[in-house]
Amino acid sequence: MYRVWATRNLGQGVKLACYAPEIMAEKDFTHLNEEGSATMVNVGDKPRTERTATASGKLRMSPGIRARVLASKVPKGNVVEVARIAGIQAGKRTAELIPLCHPLPLSYIDVRVEPDPNGLCVTVSASCTGQTGVEMEALTATSIALLTLYDMCKALEKGMEITNVRLESKSGGRSDWQRPD
């Protein structure tokens, strides 16, 4: 069952209601204030700790295009290297892309593009010493690297598919987490 989490009067008789599953506690919605408005979480009192996160995603493509990409035989050049740099830049600029995301001084970000049986796999590891985690930086870098690969290969194959963008692990802060196998 769902219950009303928050309502907001938008004027002219229009009311916005946010719904949430009954099993979710109010503290689960850390980016909403009491009125249901979006708000940035205050991390000022949290201790600075070493934070790490790894994310991954896949770009499905035909074996022939994958072979051309890996051999740098694509009209746009070494698309793997361009995707790596795009992912690194995106990870560093995550707070500019994701509303309410805290800007973090990344101490490390690694973007790897490797062959996968159905295309390519992008894996990103990020770390910093800070008051909030780097999951969004790893996920953003993964997504942008995949989008860059798609963009640079779309003239060769329109039916490529970006899939399985997900967090693989995180450490630091209140809890560590690892995706079960």
Tell me the helix content: 10-25%
CATH class of the largest domain: Alpha Beta
Strand order of the largest sheet: 4-5-3-6-7
Can you say what the CATH homologous superfamily of the largest domain is?
Answer: Molybdopterin cofactor biosynthesis C (MoaC) domain
The N- to C-terminal Cα distance equals 31 Å
> Do you know the CATH architecture of the largest domain?
2-Layer Sandwich
Mean pLDDT equals 86
| SS-based class | alpha+beta
* Count of runs of 4 or more consecutive helical residues: 4
Tell me the fraction of residues in β-strands, as a range.
35-45%
H-E order: EEEHHHEEHEE
Q: Please compute the radius of gyration using only Cα atoms.
A: 20 Å
Please give a handful of descriptors for the protein shown:
about 180 residues; alpha+beta; Alpha-Beta Plaits; five-stranded antiparallel sheet; two-stranded antiparallel sheet; 4 helices; about 35% strand
Description of the molecule:
Helices cover 25% and strands 35% of the residues. Strand 4 and strand 5 form a beta hairpin. The chain has two domains: 39 residues, no CATH class; 125 residues, 2-Layer Sandwich (Alpha-Beta Plaits). The strands form two sheets. A five-stranded antiparallel sheet has the order 4-5-3-6-7. With 181 residues, it is of the alpha+beta class. Helix 2 packs antiparallel against helix 4.
